[in-house]
Amino acid sequence: MPLDTNLLYGVMAGSWITHLAIPFATFLLVRSLPYMDLLPKTLLFLSICVALSFGTQMGLLAVLQSSSCGGIKDYRSIAIGSAIAALITATIGAIPAFIEPMRLIVSQLIMRHKTLLTPELAKMEALMSETAEKVLKASLTEDMAAAVQKGGAAISPEEYETQTFQEIAIGTGYWVAFAGAYGLGLGSLVATKCPATS
User: Fold this and answer.
1) Are residues 95 and 71 in the same domain?
2) Which of 45, 87, 96, 130 could cross-link 103 (Cys pair, CB 3.0–4.6 Å)?
3) Which of 97, 86, 75, 95 is nearest to 30 (CA)?
4) What is the pLDDT of residue 149?
5) Which of 119, 99, 109 is nearest to 164 (CA)?
6) Is residue 16 classed exposed, middle or buried when 0-12, 13-18 and 19+ CB atoms within 10 A define those classes?
7) Which H/E stretch holds residue 134?
8) By the 8 A CB rule, do 186 and 88 touch?
9) Distance between CA atoms of residues 165 and 168, nearest Å
10) pLDDT over 70 for what percent of the chain?
11) What is the gyration radius of the CA atoms in the chain, in angstroms?
12) 31 within 8 A of 163, measured Cβ to Cβ
């Protein structure tokens, strides 16, 4: 029985949507872990994403094999196809996690990137904020002056690390969504080969 391409495209779309959600769910889980530096947190985040990707791909490839072969006939080929898809997910997921411009391309569409606040920038920003506040208070009514948001374009190292992890989650979500769909397509080449019957 040949592979139903309509089903394949539907399952690839499902994989895309699922892989878009996996990094965000993982982010919500990992971000609250206390006393973790950015690198271990990022590695844990990627590991959980890849494990969830493997499980998702197993289920989706089982659906494809069941449709193509009249039932699930070969769990080994499903596992191999899922491993191929998870490897693609891990590789493509690492791109935004470790290459800043590749994650900022996506994350800046959703959130504003603030630069790291060095001691020199902190002094300059404090002076500029103080001066701007004085000018605004002199030129605006009290209600308008109270509505002015405080805070500049730079943040502390702790805030920068939190921001970076959020950007990693956003960037990884986008990149991994495509990796999930593409990986499922490649994994299906292995998983949907029906074993010969005697």
Assistant:
1) yes
2) 96
3) 97
4) 47
5) 99
6) middle
7) helix 119-139
8) yes
9) 5
10) 88
11) 24
12) no
> Residue 57: which domain range?
5-116+164-191
Q: What pLDDT, on a 0 to 100 scale, did the predictor assign at position 128? A: 78
Q: How many domains does the chain have?
A: 2
> What three-state secondary structure class fits 99?
coil
The DSSP 8-state label assigned to residue 153 in this structure reads S
CA distance 142 to 136: 10
Residue 131: half-sphere exposure toward Cβ, Cα within 13 Å: 6
Please report which confidence band the pLDDT of residue 2 belongs to, taking 50, 70 and 90 as the band edges: low
Question: Residue 106's Cα: distance from chain center in Å?
Answer: 10
Q: How confident is the model at residue 69 (pLDDT cuts 50, 70, 90)?
A: confident
Q: Does residue 61 share a domain with residue 43?
A: yes
Same domain, 30 and 106: yes
Say yes or no: 51 and 124 in one domain: no
Beta bridge partners of 115: 154
pLDDT band of residue 196 (cuts 50, 70, 90) is low
Residue 197: inside a domain, yes or no? no
Q: Are residues 36 and 97 in the same domain?
A: yes
Residue 147: pLDDT above 70? no
For residue 172, which amino acid is it? T
Task: Say whether pLDDT at 66 is over 80.
Answer: yes
User: What's the pTM value of the predicted model, to 2 decimals?
Assistant: 0.76
- Gap between the Cα atoms of 179 and 5, Å rounded: 19
